[in-house]
Amino acid sequence: MMGHVPLSWFLMLSAVLFSLGVAGFIFRRNIITMFMSIELILNAVNLTFITFAYQRQQVAGHLFAFFVMVVAAAEAAVGLAIILTVFKNRETLNIDDLDSMKN
Amino acid sequence: MQLWLIPILPLAGFLINGLFGRRFSKGMVNTFAIGSVVLAFLWVLKTLFGLGGLPGTYTEHYFTWIQSGALTVNCDFSVDRLTAVMLLVVTGIGSLIHIYAIGYMAHEGGYYRFFAYLNLFMFFMLTLVLAANYLVLFVGWEGVGLCSYLLIGFYFDKKFATDAGNKAFIVNRIGDFGFSLAMFLIFRQFGSLDFAHVFAQAPAAPVGLLTLIGILLMFGACGKSAQIPLYVWLPDAMAGPTPVSALIHAATMVTAGVYMTARSWVIFTHAPIAMDVIAYIGIATAFVAATIGLAQNDIKKVFAYSTVSQLGYMFVGVGCGAFSAGIYHLMTHAFFKALLFLGAGAVIHSLSGEQDMRQMGGLRTKIPWTFWVMLCASLAIAGFPFTSGYFSKDAILLAANHRAPWLYWAGVFTAGMTAFYVFRAFFMTFTGKYRGKEHPHESPPVMLIPLVILAVLSIVGGALFRIPDFLHTVFPAVETPEEFGPMAIASAAGLLGIALAALMYWYRPGIPDSIVNSAKGLYTLIYNKYFVDEVYDAVVVKPLVSGSRLVLWKGFDAGLIDGIVNGIGTRAKNIGDVLRLPQSGNTRSYATWVAFGGVLVIFLMAVFGGLR
Predict the structure, then answer these.
(1) Residue B94 confidence (pLDDT) above 90
(2) Which of A50, B339, B453, B508 has the most C-beta neighbours closer than 10 Å?
(3) Is residue A44 part of a domain?
(4) Other CB atoms closer than 10 Å to residue B420's CB: what's the count?
(5) How close, in Å, is residue B596 to chain A by CA atoms?
(6) B517 — contact with chain A (CB < 8 Å)?
(7) Hey, are the CB atoms on A99 and B586 less than 8 Å from each other?
(8) pLDDT tens-digit series, residues B467-501
(9) Any A CB within 8 A of B528 CB
(10) What are the backbone angles phi and psi of residue B61, rounded to the nearest 5°?
(11) Is residue A61 part of a domain?
(12) Hey, how many other C-beta atoms are within 10 angstroms of the C-beta on B229?
């Protein structure tokens, strides 16, 4: 079935998802939204890996995708914990207010 | 014969007192300080008796100090008759002055420090005298300079004392520069610094080079022995305690230059021009210093200028080829000048520190012992017939007469002035009415006994120790016929000086003031020491100081060096200021940078072909 869909479509979808993720990361101010944008970026990259793995018939791309998912899961756990702590201490999730490193 | 023991004993005294003296009682400090010097004196006596008549030179080799290419310097000590005289003078007079200092320094702070320095001085002075080559001599030479500096600045909480110490050290450094150059030339010509080696080869060396070496050696001696143009430090050196003035700045250290030139007699006898230079410098110094001595009111200043003047005499003797006469005067001068200073110290001590002779007077009945010993010393320095100064001064003046009559007449005139100013000081101190406020008291026996011994030596020392006869094996014989006429004239000049001083300061005390008033300009000139210090200050010191301040400090150090260092710091800060800007702390701006970076990488890969 996949054979009928051209490779470039997958890559374009991946690029669109990646760009959405980057745009969300840059322009949204809520940390959780930014966090979700990162997940979106990671999954866009995953899609690229899988696409090329399928095209070239190599399993390494699949392995990379799994690694990314594992790391993303771990990252989500740690990241959410950090966000929770930040919210407890600062009572805000606005990224622009969290600039204590600046001065 | 274990010559090394002679200097090592005072060194041990220095180390013990210097390291642990703070915790010792005064008795302990005395035991180590005086004991070590007296032991050194006894060891000198034992050595000299053991060596018999000392017909030649006895040398002991200890170790090779420096070996580098053609240069070999051994640590050797040697004794000949010249060294024997110096050893006896240094350790003998040194012992007496150490003993005297017990009484003089009894109420001073830094007691152990004083004796430690004094012992260190003895060590270096004995090294200087015993050295068998120029470099070991130079070690002693520099060492005594260091001790002189330390002891002049002994009262280090007083500005004038530390200034005087600096002055002495720096002026001596100028002379030492000449001495160093002389040593380089000697090594270059003779390939060795050993006295025996150098003097054996010296007659064959070119006269021009020997003259240059001789003049440079004399320049070194000018610094150490306070001759024109480097005499200015010695009068200021009187800022130190009086026993130091007696030991270092009258009896021993300042005679090191005379000893060194006499030791190098082979070089000088083959360089007639250098000999002339010595004689002229000597007579000029003797004359100028004597005139300054006429008008000083500080009792120690009078004797300081007198020392400069008498050292000039010694150089006249050396410069006229009468080396033994110079050493003869060195010895008798050590007796009577040490006594003059110690006597002056006793006077100052009895008046609790007063040094101005205008505040003295009439002390004859109050401190009779000091009066009598000072009379002996004054007679000796004035050349009163058959005192020690009479013999040695006559020996020099006869040699001068043999060389050039004008040298003789200048010397005779100076002798008259010497007698005058010494007896001026004597009469101002001991006769007339007491003008001061302090209550004078006689010195303790520990001070008086050395004074009495020195007084006896001042009177009979010249007749007892006939140095020219003793040194005939060391120096070439000079033909100075014993002429009665010149000897009588020299003695008469001394007696005339005494009589004039007695007239002006004892019999008719009003005369000096009228003379001063009639020759105001001359008096001001002499009273202010010919303004030499001021001239040196304006010509040498000020340009050097302001040059250092403006060029070296403000220009080079503050401008260039600091500019480089500060410039590097400022540039780093500027770069940091620029690099700081992206580091905003704003997460979204970081994200933007990352995005831009990604775009840039992709763009570059697209343009340049990327990875294949």
Answers:
(1) yes
(2) B339
(3) yes
(4) 25
(5) 11
(6) no
(7) yes
(8) 888 888 888 877 666 778 888 888 888 899 999 88
(9) no
(10) -100, 130
(11) yes
(12) 16
- The answer, for A102 touching chain B at a CB cutoff of 8 Å, is yes
Residues in chain B within 8 Å Cβ distance of A102? 584-586
Distance (Å, rounded) from C-alpha B327 to C-alpha B265? 12
**What is the tally of structural domains in chain A?**
1
CB count, 10 Å around CB of B511?
Answer: 13
Q: Where are the domains of chain B?
A: 1-266, 271-526, 528-581, 587-612
Question: What predicted TM-score, i.e. pTM, was given to this entire model?
Answer: 0.79
Under an 8 A CB cutoff, do A99 and B585 touch? yes
Q: Which residues pair with B67 in a beta bridge?
A: B72
Q: Name the residue range of residue A57's domain.
A: 2-95
Determine the pLDDT at residue B171: 92
Centroid of chain to Cα B64: 29
Q: Does B589 touch chain A (CB under 8 A)?
A: no
* Among B283, B273, B544, CA closest to B396: B283
Closest B-chain CA to A37: B591
Nearest 5°: phi and psi at B322? -90, 70
Amino acid symbol at B566: N
**Assigned domain for A102 exists:** no
| CA geometry: angle B53, B324, B314, nearest 5 deg | 145
Which residue in A has a C-alpha nearest to residue B593's C-alpha? A26
Instruction: Extract the tokens encoding B543.
Output: 């340009």
Counting Cβ atoms within 10 Å, is residue B179 exposed (0-12), middle (13-18) or buried (19+)?
buried
Any idea what the CATH number is for the domain that residue A21 is in?
Answer: 1.10.287.3510
pLDDT of residue B612: 58
A window 10-39, beta carbon within 8 A of B: 22, 25-27, 29, 34
- Whether the CB of A96 is below 8 Å from some CB of chain B: the reply is yes
Contact residues on chain B for A27, CB-CB shorter than 8 A: 588
Q: Check if the interface score ipTM surpasses 0.90.
A: no
